[in-house]
## 1
Amino acid sequence: MSLKRNIQDLRKRKIEVQKGGGDKAIEKQAAMGKLTARERILAILDKNSFHEYDLFVEHLARDFNMENKVLHGDGVITGTGTIHGSPICIYAQDFTVAGGSLGLMHARKITKIMDHALKMRVPLIGINDSGGARIQEGVNSLAGYGEIFFRNTLASGVIPQLSVILGPCAGGAVYSPALTDFVFVVENISKMFITGPSVIKSVLGEEITMEELGGARVHSEVTGNAHFFAKSELECFDQIKTLIGLIPRNNTDKAVKIEPKEPLKKYKIDKIVPNNARLPYDINDIIKSITDNSEFFEVMELYAPNIVIGFGRMNGETCGFVANQPKVLAGVLDCDSSDKAARFIRYCDSFNIPIITLEDMPGYLPGADQEHMGVIRHGAKILYAYSEATVPKITIIIRKAYGGGYIAMNSRHLRADFVFAWPTAEIAVMGPEGAANIVFRKEIESAEDPEAMRQQKIEEYKTKFANPYVAAAKGYVDQVIEPFETRSMLLHALSVSENKSVSMPRKKHGIPPF
Ligand code: HXC
């Protein structure tokens, strides 16, 4: 064949394979409000940057009449491209081909691009839209999942791994996203569960829809499996691009520095916290009064909102923020907020992102519910994560810093590099009311006017302990600062910490309270 004929033949083959499961299956995909696998990749990556590999891979299944079935690309598209000019490895399961089910060769395509991402030290994005293990391929499908999970674990903490759930992600398939760093879900499209509604009905006799069982909201608000919730696929892709712009491409790199901008004037840092310490406020306003251009990219916004985590830039460089949210449960620490914060702290530490902690919380949430859910174990995760982190760690104590929470929220004792407190800070073993009731119980009970005595003792306690100066006198707080100094103190502390170097005891790995 002449070169011209060869090229024509190649083009024809490519067009044929790129049809995926064919027009009818593509129409069905569109009718479900979903883009195709190829459209998704092209929408996420920079224009004309996608390069596909293994287009002509074919499945090897021979049972259940599979030998006569053509599965284009074996139900998954893999390749490389760029986002904001930075290289990315990507795969997208193609639901139009055998429901995106995972057989041996489908898995091999995925593991090949995963190996590539790890070797080249670039982020990996996986788009999940699949009926799970390809039933006709039996143990080969299970083996394929195992190979993926193993690589997810190897790559963890080395390259960023993003999972995008854009359809069903059923059975064992859910464990790859669960092993990755960030999971993106889209309303009405994402469905994640171990056991589907039909099995639940036959085993437990319970009726439940896929949406109620494992829809996007469930995983964003209830389970905490998802980190970013979007109303449409395009909004989801914007979130992916924003995140990729904020994080480094591997654990030896730093995030790209951009031209710094001052925070917007509308955020007035000294007007946000109410004079009455019992009143709530939105910690997001404080964060935005500190960050460049008042931008803050929140992670897990809908889960455990009593703590706020996310990325913002300081002098053009990405920082991770961990902040109690006084407007939800007074910002208390509980099982879920501890999990949420601890995982984020470890992410920042793995990827060289300095951590800024904003503190205003009354401690750990009391009650049998929390105790029985394991607040001891979950709460310990924050202590572990901060203690272990060696990136620059700076704390601003805004208001309440009570009890175990004072220690947990990146205190000096867990090796914070800098601890600054506002004059409104209250650093104490517990809140003044609780403390006065316990310590002065006898005096209060025997007083002529117990209520007046209680108030007097509360005031005494406040004056003595509920301020930043006792901690500052011990050097636990480095400086008491005025609110307007917060950004400049942080910028200075970050620049001083730029070459921070600490060594930890040699070990294979620690044993965190998982
Ligand atoms: C083979 C599959 C498949 C699968 C779907 N298909 N799932 N083929 N193996 N797991 C095929 C269908 O036969 C159909 O092929 C096409 O994909 C589209 O599927 P539909 O059912 O028509 O689509 P829809 O109505 O949208 O329903 C989607 C679905 C449903 C909810 C995902 O297909 C489903 O429940 N699939 C099984 C999900 C599941 O239980 N998976 C877990 C497997 S066990 P045709 O040729 O008709 O177009 C598992 C364990 C792994 O994953 C453990 C690893 C550790």
## 2
Amino acid sequence: MTSLSPQPAQPASARPLYHRVLLKVSGEVLMGEQPFGIDLATLDAVAADIAEVTTKGVEVCLVIGGGNIFRGLSMAGKGMERASADYMGMLATVMNALALQSALEKIGVNTRVQSAIPMDAVCEPYIRRRALRHLEKGRVVIFAAGVGAPFFTTDTGAALRAAEMGCEALFKGTSVDGVYSADPKTHPDAERYDRLSYLDVLARDLRVMDASSISLMRDNAIPIVVFSIRERGAFLNVLTGAGVHTVIGPDSLP
Ligand code: UDP
């Protein structure tokens, strides 16, 4: 583990390190500066960054959270039955998926939304082989409703779909530029890591993703790349190995 000084941006010709990736964007990112819901300018900016990556020939899977609209755990904490609250959270992720689909299609990116909870009038049901076909045809596939079951999160959904789709890396776009020893918003002296092992993250309870998703990525040796999606152009930059980010991988990685 080493702390990292900002890396220089790569030249425009730099090539992406991966051919197929999954990008997980938490719902909170879509709020922008708003306290709730979807900020259209932020949505368009995230869509533009995804579009930029597709022009480089990278196949992109997307998983969007729902925390900007509804979070099951917090409603359960106020007395609602947990499973019902979680289903509402999953529906929130479908709303975000449709919003991102619309933003992407507006700028010419072909997309399909597949939901883990079948919703025929709204989007396709999740069918693994069909999703693979979409990717091969250059479409961005947005996976909605997490894993389709309560007591899980969209992080777990992202890890599961990344493994099922044969993604070479899981990119986690957050509002901070990597994994820190403590929340940098409340601890300005927190250390940022350049590289961590899956076991470091689990043992030190670094809370970048939930433990089940970290374990799933560890079992399948899929690296997790944590970066700030709030910075324009960062997705492509980090895909080429440049920009500020944290890579979580096996202990043996250089
Ligand atoms: N959720 C769930 N099962 C899943 C995915 C999501 O029950 O497989 C629910 C859960 O209530 C969660 C909410 O959907 O709080 C929104 O997802 P998440 O909290 O992962 O969104 P994010 O924090 O990434 O915005």
